[in-house]
Write a structure and sequence with these properties.
Layout lengths: L3 H4 L5 H13 L1 H8 L3 E2 L6 H21 L8 E3 L11 E3 H11 L4 H29 L7 H23 L4 H15 L5 H9 L8 H31 L3 E2 L12 E2 H26 L27 H9 L4 E4 L2 E4 H15 L4 H9 L7 E2 L6 H21 L1 H7 L4 H40 L1 E8 L5 E6 L3 H8 L24 H14 L10 H8 L6
Parallel strand pairs: 4-8
Antiparallel strand pairs: 1-5, 2-3, 6-7, 9-10
Length: 541
């Protein structure tokens, strides 16, 4: 006679493992609560995914490269398979990079994928942050996440710098020398910082090993922590969405995380990986064998940093070579001032969420995104920042622009010096006027509808174009945005004639508020009365 336990069907091994894990980690309950979380569907949201996927590619290819790279500045004579370098004295770092490129199976492709993924990673972060900035996705409760993203951008820039400095080739050595010159310009402590970083007089014998530890351990570890925190906050705060029918600050309209969103995300990862691999396979980047090993008395013609470090390079190249002597010490202002301006230009965009929150006094949570045209001042500031970056990027490559466009390098340098102050102002004005023009067009579309291109003749002989009323969904999209009223100080004298003392911060806030939301800074939205009057036929055909 069999027992009941013998009659029961034995659960599959996978199910038993799942039950065991769930009993100890609570995975099933966690998955049940979160795997059906809704994510909105919009193409611009994929920019953040490109950042994530390129970072994963960087980590995977970086692990492979660490297996063959020797982070040492010990001098060796090269006897590898690249014939033009036979018998040349070089560091072990440079020799091992040559070996990866010519002797390790797939090494050159992995090197190029790693470098291209780094460039795309930083570029995607910049574009992703601009999307967040222009749409107002940084507002409460996402200010902390905005700071996390900004720190990821800064750390990504310096991780890239330490990475392309590792091969110890002539180009990267020139970049390291550039950085050392900037460090030396710091008053009082500059020489101490340089000696500490390089282990003696430049170039020393330790900086490759030190950069290697920073590049593969310190910075990626911090970035990994920030990235995990960033994603947790995205999950916790729920995703932002553009205005539309049925979309409010209290819900999310879109697709569930499983299975739809995860399937799309998985496919998109392989698409990003394929594009980066294809670019790496056909476009050579950083051909160190054509440059040779670094020597302090040599410099390569047309030495350029990766694009994201072009801003500090442009600042220093455009800055006049000012020097002052104080108490027997020379202060190199031509390098030190750009060293101070770099974090100011870079950090200006980081503090914007807090400035805007203070000016508006808005403490509410925002989950509906703005259309950039509906916040013209913010959009104009973002465009001005991008224009500033482009000007400085031109300054960082002034010799290359002079060569390829047959221009005077002095003329380009003076353009950058003047453009640093003028171009952002012009970009601000133009961007703001475009936004206001687009607002006026939306205003007319709401009241008069869409132009059909159909010309109709009225009984009394007048020709008019027939307008088609907009659907309710589009009307909602064009009128859902909120328009802030500028802050006013109010009367400074009360009913008893006693003058009220107004704080300087209150005056500043009112002035900034007037500049951002006052007259000629936003086009009033159509009112319900205006819409009903137009649609009733008064003055409308």
């Amino acid at each position: 006679m069999s027992t009941s336990s013998n009659n029961e069907r034995k659960a599959p091994a996978g199910e038993r493992v799942a039950d065991w894990a769930d009993g100890r980690l609570g995975i099933y309950g966690l998955a049940k609560a979160n795997m059906r979380k809704i994510f909105p569907d919009h193409w611009s949201f994929m920019l953040g995914e490109i950042c994530l996927y390129s970072f994963i590619i960087i980590i995977l290819t970086g692990v492979y490269l660490t297996l063959f790279f020797h982070p040492s500045m010990n001098e060796v004579v090269y006897h590898g398979s690249y014939v033009p370098m036979q018998g040349v004295m070089m560091s072990e770092a440079f020799a091992s990079t040559l070996d990866i490129s010519f002797d390790v199976r797939g090494g050159l492709l992995i090197r190029q994928i790693h470098h291209w993924a780094a460039l795309i990673f930083v570029a995607a972060m910049v574009v992703h942050m601009m999307r967040v900035f222009f749409t107002g996705a940084f507002r409460k409760p996402r200010e902390v996440n905005w700071i996390f993203g900004f720190l990821l951008l800064v750390l990504g820039m310096f991780t890239g710098f330490t990475g392309y400095s590792l091969p110890d080739d002539l180009l990267s050595g020139t970049g390291v020398r550039f950085m050392q010159g900037a460090i030396l310009s710091v008053p009082v402590v500059g020489t101490y910082l340089s000696m500490f970083l390089f282990g003696g007089e430049f170039p020393g014998g330790d900086f490759v090993a030190r950069f290697y530890s920073v590049h593969i351990l310190l910075l990626p570890g911090i970035m990994m922590g920030l990235l995990v925190a960033h994603l947790i906050l995205v999950f916790y705060h729920k995703h932002t969405q553009f205005a539309g029918p049925g979309k409010t600050n209290n819900n999310v309209v879109g697709m569930p995380l499983l299975p739809v969103y995860m399937a799309k995300a998985g496919g998109f990862f392989f698409l990003v990986f394929g594009v980066i691999a294809a670019v790496a396979a056909v476009a050579t980047i950083n051909p160190i064998w054509a440059l040779g090993p670094y020597r302090p008395d040599h410099v390569s013609t047309g030495a350029q940093p990766d694009w994201y470090m072009g801003m500090p390079e442009g600042l220093i190249r455009a800055m006049p070579g000012w020097e002052i002597n104080l108490w027997g010490h020379t202060l190199v202002l031509g390098v030190f001032i750009p060293l101070l301006l770099f974090p100011l230009v870079l950090g200006a965009i980081a503090v914007w969420p807090f400035i805007e929150s203070w000016v508006t006094g808005d403490k509410r949570e925002h989950h509906i995104l703005d259309r950039p045209r509906n916040v013209p001042t913010r959009t104009a500031f973002g465009v001005a920042w991008i224009a500033e970056y482009i000007v400085l990027l031109i300054g960082g490559g002034n010799d290359m622009f002079a060569q390829y466009f047959h221009l005077s390098i002095n003329s380009i340098t003076w353009f950058v010096r003047i453009g640093f102050f003028v171009v952002p102002v012009l970009a601000f004005i133009v961007a703001k006027r475009i936004c206001l023009g687009l607002q006026r067009r939306d205003h007319d579309k709401v009241l008069h509808g869409r132009e059909t291109g159909i010309i109709k003749r009225l009984p009394h002989g007048e020709f008019v174009e027939v307008h088609e009323p907009l659907p309710a969904g589009q009307l909602h999209k064009l009128t859902a945005h909120e328009q802030y009223k500028p802050v006013e100080i109010g009367p400074t004298v009360d009913e008893n004639g006693v003058e009220r003392k107004v704080k300087a911060t209150e005056k500043l806030r009112a002035k900034l508020s007037q500049g951002m939301y006052g007259e000629n800074n936003q086009i009033p939205k159509p009112t319900v009365e205006e819409y009903k009057e137009i649609q009733s036929g008064h003055g409308h055909h």
